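Could you show me just one protein sequence together with its fold in token form as a worked example?
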Amino acid sequence: MDNNLCTGFDRVGNVEIKIVMDSDTVSRALDIQLSLNKESKILVVGLGETGFSVAKFLHRLSLPFAVIDSRDKPPLNDALLADYPDTPVFTGGFDKAAFDVATHLIVSPGVSLQEASINRALLKGAKLVSDIDLFACSTDKPIAAITGSNGKSTVTTMLGSMGVASGIKTAIGGNLGTPALDLLDETVELYVIELSSFQLERASVLNAQVATVLNVSADHLDRHDGIDGYAKEKQKVFLGDGVMVLNEDDSIVREMERQGRKTIFFSTHKNKGFHLRQYQGESWLMNEDQPLMRRQELPLEGLHNVANALAAMAMGGEIELNVTAMCNALRKFKGLSHRMQRVAEFRGVTWVNDSKATNIGACVAALEGYQHKVVLIAGGDAKGADMTELVPAVKESAKCVVLMGKDADVIDSAINGCVPTYKVETVQQAVAIAVGLAKEGDSVLLSPACASIDQYKSYQDRGDKFTAAVLALVA
């Protein structure tokens, strides 16, 4: 079978589900690649946005399925029953009987594969399928796939804007937003997709034209088998034979290079591939010896955002985007909310919201982007990570650390007095104490290195409360 039959992915907006290729071609691809056909007994596990997108897709192809969710009232239960009233739906737990008869499980990323019912069904021979697999068998348009512990939403958005600036109908999304299957559209010319480790661990069909792992640092170790298992799942983004874009500065990512595969590197420390270098007395983003744009033209804080821009440029080059258009897109790129977002300047102090830094690597990257000491606000749910890995960056870049949340004591113990620490209960209290700690010329950085689930609805909620507290202070 032609590899081009199964390539695609993710997002243009809230588009009504369409089958890009004709239904017979898609059905044949699903049967060949996933043994999925009208004789299958498909169980969709999880009725959030992803599960609902899968239900719409399966219904359109007249494939038999049931839906199950451990919650009593899943968020899209009413919508599913309104649109597809004949669908068997099981809620309030994982009914063993439903799993016993399933030949295929399509498990939403938010549901752990270690759930006993899921694990038992897989051991009995049920086939694990993802919404990404279904999508990949439904389009023959090129895909750029992006994963990594940090920066993947930024790079996805950067590359998507480059595609638009180049005059290409570009669909942007995946883990970033709208589920993949809701983005299928016959007018799309390029899919730019963000993929999480949870999406990749259950994917088996993907042949992106270009793919990248931006970096690997300790994250989600409560759901993966240590850092090696986590990296193994990330590496699945390279399924197929497309071009690999690798971070030369990340030792784990660098080792993912495969013999016989075209590989492009990016780096902020070495003159290799797409890199940062002094040129004619200024710092430039370069492609080998070709100058692309001056670093000062990039309107984002931090060296890690230079790396993000280089990764996006490297991927854009492999899908033949216009170089001038790519540089112009970067010049206009203002960054994403809760990612090194400058909130305000007050009495000479800059307040920065990096609430999306839900792991150590993201916090380290943020700290390394500063040439002056910062007041760091950190803490939350460490997700089992080893917080001693945060210490070198804290020693180098933080004048003090304000700690909050469930694992504040864990971080405090790891820091072990190398800089002063202060403990508070909430992010609002952290802002209040940081006012007295920061002096003119300092920055106060919310970069928690932890998840928000111990205290807040989401990292967005945490960041919004930080922003509101800062703006109230300014007012």
User: Anything to note?
Assistant: The chain has 17 helices and 20 strands. The chain has three domains: 21-133, 140-176+186-216+227-332, 341-474. Residues 21-133 form a domain with the Rossmann fold fold (CATH 3.40.50.720). The first helix runs from residue 23 to 34.
